[in-house]
Design a protein that fits this description.
Number of strands: 0
Radius of gyration: 20 Å
Structural class: mainly alpha
Order of helices and strands: HHHHHHHHH
Strand content: under 5%
Number of domains: 2
C-alpha cells in the first residue's frame, strides 16, 4: 500500500484536472515519493477508476473536437504528448469517427465564414485552414457541399 501522503497528494493533484497515468506518475516522482509508493498509489487509483487513460482520451476528444473544434492531428499529438497509448487513441477515434468528422466539418464551415468576413477568398482560406491542421480533403468536402 502506498504511503498516505503519496496517495493524498495524488488524489489532490487529479482532483483539480483529470490526468493521464504518465502525467500523474511523473508528478509524484518529481515530488520525491519513492518509486514503490508511486506504483502502489497508481495501482490503487486504477482499481478505483480514478485514473483511466481511455476515459481521459474520450473526454479530451469530446472537449477539444466538439467544444473547441481543434483539428484531429493536433488532438492526437497532444494525447501522445500526455502519454496516452497509441492503441487507445486509435480505438477512441474509431468509435467516434462519425461525430469527429461532423465536428470538424462544422468548425471548417465557421472558419470559412470568418475568413470571408475579413475579405479573404479562395486559396488563401484553404492555406490558412491547412496551416491550422485541417486536411485538404475535409476542406474540399465542405467547400463542395456549400
Amino acid at each position: 500500500m502506498a504511503t498516505p501522503l503519496c496517495l493524498d497528494y495524488a488524489l489532490h493533484y487529479i482532483s483539480r484536472f483529470p490526468k493521464t497515468e504518465r502525467e500523474l506518475k511523473i508528478q509524484l516522482l518529481q515530488k520525491g515519493y519513492l518509486s514503490a509508493d508511486v506504483e502502489n498509489a497508481m495501482e490503487f487509483l486504477k482499481t478505483k477508476w480514478f485514473i483511466d487513460d481511455r476515459k481521459f482520451a474520450e473526454s479530451y476528444f469530446r472537449s477539444e473536437c466538439t467544444n473547441k473544434g481543434k483539428p484531429l492531428i493536433r488532438i492526437i499529438a497532444k494525447l501522445q504528448e500526455k502519454g496516452v497509448d497509441k492503441h487507445i487513441i486509435h480505438d477512441v477515434i474509431k468509435e467516434s469517427e462519425e461525430d469527429i468528422y461532423e465536428w470538424i466539418q462544422e468548425k471548417i464551415k465557421k472558419e470559412i465564414v470568418t475568413y470571408k468576413k475579413r475579405g479573404e477568398e479562395g486559396f488563401d482560406i484553404i492555406q490558412k485552414l491547412m496551416r491550422k491542421g485541417y486536411k485538404l480533403g475535409d476542406i474540399k468536402k465542405v467547400i463542395e457541399n456549400k
